[in-house]
Amino acid sequence: MATQLQLRKYEKAFERFDVDRDGVLQRNDITAMAEIWRQTFDVSPQTEEANRINGLAEQLWSDITAATDADADGTVSKTEWNAAMEQPEFVDKVALPFALAVFDLADKDNSGQLSVEEMIAAQTRSGISEEETRRMFDALDADHDGSVQRDEYAAAIREFYLSDDPNAVGNLMVGDLD
């Protein structure tokens, strides 16, 4: 059973995915998110990169509904979402691959790491303030080299979903939990 901290994290993640803020996840939320990423990273609509983003969004929706839509109604309620979040296989097969795809989009120079500017560009468009993003970046940059490595980011995403440690760095992945 999820702790209060975990439930709050799941709620914040749900809010990020629920683009139209109607209280359920639907395909249009995920396609809207893909459009936000495309615009954020200045990807032209008729390009291979845009097709990749759209494909990732379709795969994400398919994976989310396969893992969460218990009543098969084509929407994902908060209750269904919360139940899936407690499953490590959901994190490993759905949440983490999508988060890493976004990481790769934000990594404009294909260096395998994000600068604070790249992270700010990615996070502020999804509703996380620049201040929150800088705190997140500083915590993720464990070796203080001025960049967040892909593996550091992946570990934090996994920790976000699965840890109930109130001091875990991964708790910062969706901004402040208050």
TrEMBL record:
Signal peptide from the UniProt entry: none
SUPFAM superfamilies assigned to the protein according to its UniProt record, in alphabetical order: EF-hand (SSF47473)
Coiled coil regions in record: none
Occurrences of domain EF-hand (ranges): 5-40, 128-163
InterPro entries per record: EF-hand-dom_pair, EF_Hand_1_Ca_BS, EF_hand_dom
Keywords: Metal-binding, Repeat
Keyword Ribosomal protein attributed: no
PANTHER family: 45 KDA CALCIUM-BINDING PROTEIN (PTHR10827:SF98), RETICULOCALBIN (PTHR10827)
Protein's name in the database: Ca2+-binding protein, EF-hand superfamily
Organism: Actinokineospora diospyrosa
